[in-house]
Design a protein that fits this description.
6-stranded antiparallel sheet, Chemotaxis protein chec, 44% helix
């Protein structure tokens, strides 16, 4: 699953956010599937929405024995306490708790962005600032990815 795009959305007065149809169809390709996402706090206190299968991978990625027991305890306490299971209502909206909104510093105008395996919720102005500050890095990574793709194509073609 590759979740892409940026969407300018508004939190309604009840803290509900509409997930665009295009994204819902990608995340939930079958109508009989439970429309469940997991809301969790990601890097820099950005709220992230993960499909259940992707959330399980992230949640179980830190295995006992791979990190110090006290680090695992912090990961589990904070990570699972701040995560929540959210269901889409019939209009395709998710309810974001007051605490999550406050902790993430979200305002009414939200930029919902696709970020490969999850969605991120940003204040629109902070998202625009992030883009300006990181566009050069992005362009460099695109150039490197294209060069690597061309290199592999040449190798496969025997050049």
């Amino acid at each position: 699953m590759l979740l892409t795009g940026e969407y300018d959305l508004t939190l309604d007065e009840k803290n509900r956010l509409s997930i665009p149809v295009r994204l819902r169809q990608q995340i939930f390709p079958r109508d009989d599937f439970d429309n469940v996402l997991y809301l969790m706090t990601g890097f820099n206190q950005i709220l992230c929405l993960y499909p259940e299968s992707e959330y399980r991978r992230i949640a179980l990625a830190v295995a006992p024995g791979k990190v110090a027991p006290d680090e695992l305890l912090v990961y589990e306490r904070v990570g699972f306490a701040l995560a929540s299971r959210v269901e889409l209502d019939r209009q395709g909206r998710v309810l974001i708790s007051d605490k999550a909104i406050r902790r993430a510093g979200l305002k009414e105008q939200i930029a919902l962005i696709g970020a490969r395996d999850h969605l991120e919720l940003w204040n629109q102005d902070e998202w625009e600032t992030y883009l300006v500050e990181h566009m050069a890095e992005h362009e460099q990574m695109v150039l490197q990815a294209r060069q690597e793709t061309y290199r592999k194509q040449r190798e496969e073609a025997g050049w």
